[in-house]
Amino acid sequence: MTGQRIATRAAAFAAVAVLAVTGGAVAQADDDIESLPAEQIADRSRDALLDVGSLRLRAQGDLGKGRSPMTVDLSLDRGGNCAGGVDLGEGKGKVEIIKHGDSVWVKPDADFWENQVPVGGSAFESVLAGRYLKGSASDPRLRPVVDACDLDTFQKLVSDNADSNAGTFTKGKVTTVDGVRTVPVTRTLHGQELTAYVDTGGEHRPVRITVRGDGADAAVGFSAFDEPVPTATPSADDTVDVSAVLGRGPAQS
Question: Which helix (H) or strand (E) is 250 found in, with range?
Fold first, then answer.
């Protein structure tokens, strides 16, 4: 099903913004983060983001290069649990996503079926009738959703792709973002300005990251650090097994 790639794209969307702004300099032990050079603040924020066990990620906008604007709102943890949704924007469809333990639920709306699954989408919509599609986390057809719901996957993208040598870093004036005192660090790279608003207190995690220029206009917000992912799951009456819609599919590993 085409829509199963949506969650992977959502995670990649957010990861690209994080990758673009974080550096690789060696951070000092100084707790006065406001006095540190821009590169070291960026490094502190990256390390802090890699250390969390769970978070809420909210991304909105367009990263350019032909990508359509979209909105992501996911709470996820290292145990592979997640809850939230993805809006593809411009009436292209929305998908609610829940993963808890070994089970996955997805609920696309009518616009999604029409635009993302043009062949057979209306039939799928009719079968589901507003209910969730439920499957096993081991079902290979749901693997993209499972991978995107794992905070470890997101953090690995950030860790593996940080480039310490590219771009120019600058530090801005302290400002408040979502009620949090932050110091902004901007990385200018390939015609884009990528700004991380880093919490000046606590663990110095990024509160927001923005990407501007060269066709991009996006923001990624982080909150609910180390808080449990919501555990509510749809009832049996509100679900349809994936095999009833897509068939039994390939053998599961």
Answer: none
